């Protein structure tokens, strides 16, 4: 005769909520656009231009899982168009898939120091 199993399982449903400020445009300082992403570089540029005309520059990338980078032009005043894409690709491209579009926040911090000779 088989033993009757008593079950002590409980069913639960957990709901987690989080929120984030919706920004116009809905991207931060840069957008890494994967080669197989559902939105292409030109469409991403048009989206950015429709919400923030003239504020973003599209830089095409070859030989990486990232097809293009859309970068806020004010960031390019501190970091040249050669330095920032290289930095983003080295640090972030290995972490993403070709079918993703990843928004990136770039924080440029300026440091200055001076030594003054006292006589």
How do you describe this structure in short?
This protein is α+β, with helices and mostly antiparallel strands and 119 residues long. The chain has helices at residues 41-51, 73-76, 83-91; strands at residues 30-34, 56-60, 66-72, 101-104. The termini are far apart.
Which key terms come to mind for this protein?
119 residues, alpha+beta, four-stranded antiparallel beta sheet, 18% strand
Q: Distance N terminus to C terminus? A: 101 Å
Radius of gyration: 23 Å
- In DSSP terms (H or I, runs of 4 or more residues), the helix count works out at 3
How do the strands of the widest beta sheet line up side by side? 2-3-1-4
Helix content: 10-25%
What structural category arises from helix and sheet content? alpha+beta
- What portion of residues belong to β-strands? 15-25%
Unreliable parts: none
Quick one: biggest sheet? 4 strands, antiparallel
Q: What sequence of helices (H) and strands (E) makes up the elements?
A: EHEEHHE
Mean pLDDT: 87
Report the principal-axis shape.
extended
Number of strands: 4
Describe this structure in words.
With 119 residues, the protein is of the alpha+beta class. It has helices at 41-51, 73-76, 83-91; strands at 30-34, 56-60, 66-72, 101-104. It has a four-stranded antiparallel β-sheet, sandwiched between helices. β2 and β3 (66-72) form a beta hairpin. The mean pLDDT is 87.
Topology:
Blueprint: E1 30-34, H1 41-51, E2 56-60, E3 66-72, H2 73-76, H3 83-91, E4 101-104
Antiparallel strand pairs: 1-3, 1-4, 2-3
